[in-house]
Amino acid sequence: MIPSGVFAAPDFSLVGKFDFSSFTKLGVAATILWIFSIMLSDFFDTMGTLIGVGGQAGYLDRDGNLPDVKKPLIVDSLAAVAGGVVSSSSATTYIESGAGVGVGGRTGWVGVIVALLFFAAMPFSPVFGVVPANATAPALIIVGFLMMRTLTEGEGRAEHEDGKEKPFSGIDFSDISVGLPAVLIMTLMPLSYSITNGIGAGFVAYTVIRLAQGKARDVSWMMYLATVGFVIYFAFPLIRHVFNLA
């Protein structure tokens, strides 16, 4: 739609508008579950993006970990707090960052420059609002394709549990406890429009499969804890309905 004007003053009326009435309207238990589900969504959206974009940028080590991951997590946490202070959507690391990496961005200056450009564009929001959201789809599809290249990293041959050498890539699909959760993650993320849902399904599937294989000791306590958290996260809509929490 053609905008009625070119300029529009940003609306700062909600800045600093805190509301804790959910504790009285929903109850303490429901509010805590609500906060917990939002925390899971934010945290695993961030971790999924850090690993995906970090792999695309070549920052992951040989074990697939992002060195010194605490720094981006702290920045992301502070950004989420800042988003809450101004009553906006949660400011979190997301997959669009891969677009910057795809054109050569490798340092934090990319984020700084983009932030300054967004700040300068704020008065011109009616003009930029003409561009539909689905116009970004082709760019994100290409970014996703580039990120899928990390699955071929480490191609070669490795000794499997049965003592035989088998070809492997970034994901060992010969092991059902690894391959099946990976398929669930890659499938559910686009179908549910949520990185968190995909990662959660993968966590739960991995833990259940390991238990069924009689390899409970191979699952770390943190994985068990995350699995329980995701079970609560997925069950929260049912819990809310059964107990009339909202």
Structure description:
This protein is mostly helical. It has two domains: 22-131, no CATH class; 171-246, no CATH class. Strands 1-2 form a two-stranded antiparallel sheet. The protein has ten helices and two strands. Helix 2 crosses helix 10, helix 8 runs antiparallel to helix 9 (195-212) and helix 9 (195-212) packs across helix 10. The chain has helices spanning 22-25, 28-57, 70-85, 97-102, 109-121, 125-128, 137-148, 176-192, 195-212, 221-242; strands at residues 156-159, 165-168.
What is the topology, as strand order, of the major beta sheet? 1-2
Low-confidence stretches: none
- Over the alpha carbons, how many angstroms does the gyration radius reach? 21 Å
Largest sheet: 2 strands, antiparallel
Task: Provide the residue-averaged pLDDT.
Answer: 81
Shape: globular
Number of strands: 2
Which structural class should the secondary elements be placed in?
mainly alpha
